[in-house]
Amino acid sequence: xxxxxxxxxxxxxxxxxxxxxxxxxxxxxxxxxxxxxxxxxxxxxxxxxxxxxxxxxxxxxxxxxxxxxxxxxxxxxxxxxxxxxxxxxxxxxxxxxxxxxxxxxxxxxxxxxxxxxxxxxxxxxxxxxxxxxxxxxxxxxxxxxxxxxxxxxxxxxxxxxxxxxxxxxxxxxxxxxxxxxxxxxxxxxxxxxxxxxxxxxxxxxxxxxxxxxxxxxxxxxxxxxxxxxxxxxxxxxxxxxxxxxxxxxxxxxxxxxxxxxxxxxxxxxxxxxxxxxxx
Length: 279
What we know:
By secondary structure, this protein is mainly alpha-helical. The protein is built from 9 helices and 2 strands, in the order ααααααββααα. Strands 1-2 form a two-stranded antiparallel sheet. Strand 1 and strand 2 form a beta hairpin. The longest helix is centred in the last third of the chain and has 29 residues, at 210-238. The radius of gyration is 18 Å and the shape is globular. 38% of the residues are buried.
């Protein structure tokens, strides 16, 4: 299993990193749309849909994202002009932020079931479409910026794993994800803050005052954990271990982006609001 995970990870890095740094923005938007479309196909599995319906869902979301990138090139960083914070873009991010910061904590507490039919599809749209939009927009300032943001979530996962292994005694959400502990969550927060301080002092990245910067890092860590727990709960309710097996040794796309679906839209919203404030 470990060998398979390593091989898959190396193949993904060989495909994603060159695309991230060298693909034109328009092609990056399409590639991200395909990636999110696979996530939509997996979401259909959580809804208990048949294979034909799942494929239709995946193709539909891929086409939706691709169409949006064609109709709104300025917001995608493809055309010239000032349209990154267009009203529809902010609306998408505000809906996502409300979902992850308000609705999902209540969902986790009450352990609601994912609704069937159209309501469940709409929930998937709220989860996946803003993630695609953020993947595209956060790359506009430069591929390195998006990579640095992705690394926040990776750091949280790595720090949570090792601190949980070393010190984990108190379960975070035993009925949802028995392996997660409060000690792991604290370790994730510390790891992300340390990473953020390195960015600030080594690379002179100072978007906000230090105290607010640390607070934002901790908030992003909490939101990433919420995204992880949410998908874990949905999989447990659906009776499946992984969202799919498209990534041997790693499960599916949703398994790899569970924390990103909650984190990226919130980070994108905060960045746009900061840009508007500076303007």
